[in-house]
Design goal:
With 234 residues, this protein is of the alpha/beta class. It contains 7 helices and 9 strands. The strands form 2 sheets. The chain has a 5-stranded parallel β-sheet with strand order 3-2-1-4-5, sandwiched between helices. It has a 4-stranded antiparallel β-sheet with strand order 7-6-9-8, covered by helices on one side.
């Protein structure tokens, strides 16, 4: 996978689809692809009914649709029961919808070989390039780029010890990132949340036509699981 990532931007202009969850990683991958001058024909989204999908980030649909609207990019979406391995059939169905329209599929994966290998296998079957511009990124490099490009990011789900529910909906900036880093060192969770410690959404990025604002309530399940609900988007 590393060779694919390092060589991909030497291949020239491409028409691409981005596997899009609305979280920080897929948004940054989209941003980098656009900066490289490639055309993004559409966003691809799997919406898992299961809150704890093995492969996919579950997003509030109103919020997700608003992100696509602010980006001005068509989104193609399919639902999934979120059952391990059966999700692959749903993903294959989704990617099949854009076969012949794009040259490759972009993912925001950083270190999940579980997801990366499976997506790449489907791309290979359809004759599409697999593009992972963030692959092997260190956590601090990822956040440095997000801050540098003025992304506004919040957590919408927390699923680990060490991150209090008060972090939900709080914009992560350079100042409170230092606090998050200390918590990561103490409680041993990944700062990029690649292990499922938290899920994020991007409220603003350079390609949005307008910043997203939201109101929400919080739901809890036990001591360490919290997420936003009843989202109102403005």
């Amino acid at each position: 996978m590393r060779k694919i990532v390092k060589l991909i931007f030497l291949l020239g202009f491409m028409k691409l689809a981005v596997l899009f969850s609305g979280g920080k990683d897929s948004c940054l991958a989209l941003h980098k692809i656009l900066q490289e001058g490639h055309e993004v024909k559409c966003l691809l989204n799997i919406y898992p009914k299961n809150r704890d999908s093995f492969m996919f980030h579950r997003q509030d649909l109103k919020l997700l649709n608003t992100q696509a609207e602010r980006l001005g990019i068509e989104m193609v979406s399919v639902e999934s029961e979120g059952v391990e391995e059966k999700e692959l059939a749903d993903l294959s169905e989704l990617i099949g919808k854009v076969k012949g329209k794009v040259d490759g599929i972009v993912v925001g994966g950083i270190a999940s070989s579980y997801q990366g290998k499976r997506v790449k296998k489907i791309c290979d079957e359809f004759g599409l390039k697999f593009i992972a511009p963030l692959w092997d990124y260190k956590s601090e490099k990822l956040w440095d780029e997000l801050f540098e490009e003025k992304f506004e990011i919040i957590m919408i789900k927390i699923a680990c010890d060490g991150i209090r529910k008060e972090w939900l909906g709080k914009i992560i900036d350079r100042n409170n990132f230092n606090e998050l880093k200390k918590l990561s060192e103490k409680y041993k969770f990944r700062l990029d949340f690649e292990g499922g410690e938290a899920e994020t959404v991007v409220l603003n990025m350079p390609e949005y036509s307008k910043r997203i604002e939201i109101d929400f309530d919080i739901e809890n399940e036990g001591e360490y699981r919290h997420w936003i609900k009843d989202v109102v988007v403005r």
